[in-house]
Each structure stands twice: as structure tokens, then as C-alpha cells.
Amino acid sequence: MKLPALLHSVSYAGFWGQTRLSLDDFIDKAGDLGYDGVMLTAKRPHLSILDFDAAARSQLRSRLERRNLRHVVIAGYNNLTADLEHGDIPHREIQIHYIGELARLARDLGASIVRIFTGYENPASTYTAQWNLIVSTLRECARRAAEYGVILGVQNHHDIACGFESQFDLINAVNESNCRALFDAWAPALHGADLAAAARLMGPVTAHTTVACYERRPRYAYDAQVINYTPHTPYVQAVPAGEGFIDNAAFLAGLCASGFTGSVGYEMCSPLLDRSGKGAGSIENLDLYARRFLEYFESLP
Question: What residue ranges do the domains of the chain occupy?
Fold first, then answer.
């Protein structure tokens, strides 16, 4: 697989009890491991717009260039349907401004893409109203991002437009050339979709994809009345690349077959199994997973 490989800084941000690296140390880590680029978490403790003025951005860009990390994606965190219960609060405007500032940040760092989300379905409004809100907001955000020469990438993560058919519809409804999909295999695999077919549909509108690997762990609740167990939604446990139930090889092949020429990221975005013998959250375990992905990725045709 000859596409650029990126490492997501969320993997070393400490959110799930694992070792936390500073942003500078993470960049050095990605360079040392041999990645082509990075996805940078646009919130504390890494790349918050509150903490990076012009001088800090210039220094960060220089560090990325020194480490030969040529492919950079900014990972935004938003929810376009947040707090619909209180219509007097201009959450739409607040989030548009945040996304616009991420686009400015991306330009300053030489990044090509800002990753954003849609919204979690909110009981305070109808599905159609929320869909229309998201479409109009993404359209405005894309136009603002275009002023900085940046692609706005919509990841299939939040509830609305999470299914690949709906995500395809969403990108077409926004109808802005710089509004693309950041289409990942994780969600359609959990949905039970045909990954290769989904990838072939989404490939032409996808700018970047992020790989994560999981195994299912069944969950049960004991029911004493029948002396038995009631099944619950399974837990998904992160495992090293090449393991688990997600057929990433077929997914990536489907993307490429439909003309995808973007970048491929790797993230450790949940608790890991300990495969290092040093502890699940140890730097040794994180590095093992990060290296294993590069080995897996380079083995793909």
C-alpha cells in the first residue's frame, strides 16, 4: 500500500489512561517510527486553538517539516446538533467559528484537511430538521474553509449520516468541492455492511480514512428469574493491526479500486490489550501497536 500513512496524536494523548506525550514529543515519535504524516488532535492537551498563537504555529510547522511529516490532518471535535433544547444560544454560530478557526490553523501549519463530525441525534428536534441543519452548516463551513485552501472532511462517527449510504447522500447534499468524506471502516463494520462495496461507493468522495482494529467481547446481564443471561450490546476491544473482525484490507482495496488517492491514518482511540508485557497503557505498548500498523500497512498490495 503506497498511500501516505499518518499517526493520530489522540493515540498518545492519555485520554484512556495510556502514556501521554506532549505534542512536540508526539511529533518526534511519529517521525522516529517512520510515519509519513500526522493527524493532530485539535483540543487540549495537544493542538488547542486557545494555546497556539502565530509564533507557536510557526514553530510547530517547522518541527513538522524537520521531521519530514509532509501530510497533516487537523482533527476537530464538534457536535452540530448540540443543545438544541435552548434555541436562544447560538451554538451553530459558535461551532462554525470554531471550524473556521481550525481551517485557519490548518493553513498556518501547511495541513490540507480539517476533520469534523456531524451531530448526535437530539430528541429536541426531528431527524429531518437536524439533517437540514447539518447540511446548511457544513455548506457554510466548507465555504469558509475554502478561503484558506483547506478541505473539510466529514468523518462517519456521530449518529447523523453515520451509515455509508447516508454519508454519501450528505456529501452530495452539501455540494461543495472541498467538502469530502473521511470515511472509516470501523462504523460500517459494526453496522454489518459490505465493507468492500461501501468503500467502492465512498472512494470517489473520500479524502482520508482512519484505521483502527477491534475484536468483539460479548456482554451479558444475569437474570435471576430465569437463571440465565440476557445479552447486551457487545464491547469492542482494540487490538493490533491485522487482528480483529474489521477487514481493513478489503476496505482499503475497495477505496483504491474506486480511485481513492488520499491518506490513511492509524489511531489508538480506546483502551488497548497489553501485547508488550509492560502494561496496556505503557509507551512500549503504544509503540508496539503503532509499529505493527506500519508493518501491516506496508504488507498490503
Answer: 5-299
How many angstroms separate the Cα of 59 from the Cα of each of 52, 109, 164, 178, 229? 10, 9, 39, 27, 57
The dihedrals phi and psi of 178, each to the nearest 5 degrees, come to -100, 10
Cell 497533516 sits on residue = 72
Please tell me the CATH code under which domain 5-299 is placed: 3.20.20.150
Q: Cβ distance 70 to 35 under 8 Å?
A: no
* DSSP SS3 for 266: strand
Rounded Cα distance between 289 and 8, Å, is 12
Q: CA-to-CA distance for 63 and 61, rounded, in angstroms?
A: 5
- Residue ranges of alpha helices (H) inside the chain are 23-33, 54-66, 91-109, 127-146, 164-174, 186-191, 195-202, 248-257, 283-299
pTM above 0.70, yes or no: yes
pLDDT in tens, 157-209: 999 999 999 999 999 999 999 999 999 999 999 999 999 999 999 999 999 99
Please state, in angstroms and as integers, the Cα–Cα distance from residue 162 to each residue in 45, 145, 156, 168, following that order.
27, 22, 5, 10
Looking up cell 501491516, which residue turns up? 296
